[in-house]
Amino acid sequence: MIDGQKKSSIIRMFHVHKNYGTKKALANITLDISKNELLFISGPSGAGKTTLLKLLYLGEKVSEGQVLIEGINLSRISNHRIPFLRRKFGIIFQDYKLIPTKTVFDNVAIVLEATGKKRRFIEKKVKSILRTVGMEETLHSLPPSLSGGEQQRIAFARAVVGDPKIILADEPTGNLDEVSADIILELLKRFHTRGATVIIATHDKELIRKTGGRVIHLNQGYMQKTINV
Amino acid sequence: MKVVPMIHNYKRAIQDIRDHRFLNSVTIITIAISILIVSAFALFFVNANEIINSWKKGIKIMVYLKPDTPETKISELIRKIQHMDGIQDVRFISKNEAFQELKKQMKRQSSLFENLKENPLPDAFEILLKSSFQNQEKVEILATRIESLPQVDEVEYGQRWLGQFTNFFNLFRLTGYAMGSLFFMATLLIVANTIRLVLYSRRDEVEIMRLVGATDSFIKAPLYIQALIQGAFGGIIGLAVLFISFLLISSSMGQGISPGLFTIRFLSPGALCGIILVSIFVGWIGCYLSLKQFLK
């Protein structure tokens, strides 16, 4: 643990660099994210937003620098601890990443099954979360039979069903119409209110304006500015 | 592993098989074909081995005695030979008996015997050997010992034939092991590749599971169970096809070959169980090799 770490920080990044070969994806990022913060990472395509999120859940490893999640240094984490680290996160992807051959119930339940929860608890919890996102009717449907907005709500349900401390949303409204986007935004705000730290990567300025919070702006891998909306 | 997660993993494996019927069928068929080839070869080898063994049982030593050997000496010789290592049975064939037998065998050429003033054949012993002595080296040693006995005129045991036969049998056995090993390796690689393709087609699913915090063992467990099921089904189907083919071939051979010449038989229950176990093992090891590379 690094000295002077703020008690309220849940994520800390110190001079983080990420390179893909000779290409710089992120350069010298130093960032503190507090518990229960709502943070936007904005910037154009290729700015490094998705890479930054990936470094947090160890979808990628840093080339240089350090990332700490609740005091755990990700550079020193052993491979068998990675799944347990990922359980701190609920991740929402722009392309939903649902398993097309599994029902809505199974897609959401997989998070709880992976953590060894009992069947009765899983059934209760999944139904409850699907009710929260307004998708309880689709329990036995397969994802391809649902609209984009509905699939994103299922992906949202999967992200939050394990009560994660941190919700990472990568362009969560990127493929959605305005109504669906508003529903997802409301859900994110609701879980933020309940205590989760929410980090949203987006290039959608309207989404940032509607929500408010701290915004860090990335461009070509560099953190250009931080503003509060 | 705890009982409840084991049952849960088993259920997940069954569900996975249902969800990916086509891919699972491809794997099972691949295993079945591989097992069919290997077990067909094993069946051929077992039967060929049986035939060769029956030939080996025919290895005997003929001992021809010097003319006018007295009966007392003959009994003594029998006792001496019977006490030698590797002797199963000693049968005395008197020269009269041998002559009658020759006449019987050469009925059509009976005129040849009419001008003979006396029986030209010698008294002889036919010696059958114990199975452990039915090889060239031991037969040679035994023959030399018998030949050194004073009343023995000549010893015959098909020297050239036995040498060639032994070489052929050793080559056959070596070829059997080599081909068996090659088939096994080929089967393993085919199965590992098929399972890798199956995993590759499910890479998104595996990736999602990892992203939601599933441990490798959570991801692997149902895949291993699936591989064991696939191996078992593949083995059973392969052997069932082999058995049906065997019935068809043996019934057609039964009409064409005179009964008693040799009987082809199917694999023993022990061998069948062994093949199914090997098939299950192939499924498991195929899955292990694929997962090792896939979940790097």
Spatial arrangement of strands, main beta sheet of chain B: 2-3-1-4
Question: Biggest sheet of chain B: strands, sense, closure?
Answer: 4 strands, antiparallel
Pick out the low-confidence regions of chain B.
Answer: none
Determine Rg of chain A (CA atoms, Å): 17 Å
Structure overview:
The complex is a heterodimer of chains A (229) and B (296). By secondary structure, chain A is of the alpha/beta class. Chain A has one domain (35-58, 82-228): Rossmann fold. Chain A has helices at residues 49-56, 82-86, 104-114, 119-132, 148-160, 178-193, 205-211, and strands at 9-20, 23-34, 38-42, 64-69, 72-73, 89-92, 166-170, 197-202, 214-219, 222-228. Chain A has a 6-stranded mixed beta sheet, sandwiched between helices. Chain A has a 4-stranded antiparallel beta sheet with strand order 2-1-4-5, with helices on one face. In chain A, helix 3 packs parallel to helix 5 (148-160), helix 4 (119-132) crosses helix 5 (148-160) and helix 5 (148-160) packs parallel to helix 6. The relative contact order of chain A is 0.20. Chain B has 296 residues and is of the alpha+beta class. Chain B folds into 2 domains: 3-55 and 176-294, no CATH class; 60-156, Alpha-Beta Plaits, CATH 3.30.70. A 4-stranded antiparallel beta sheet of chain B has the order 2-3-1-4. Chain B is elongated, with a radius of gyration of 31 Å. The A-B interface holds A 57, 59, 80, 83-84, 86-87, 89, 91, 97-99, 101-102, 110-111, 113-116, 119, 158, 162 and B 5, 8, 12, 19-20, 204-205, 207-216, 218.
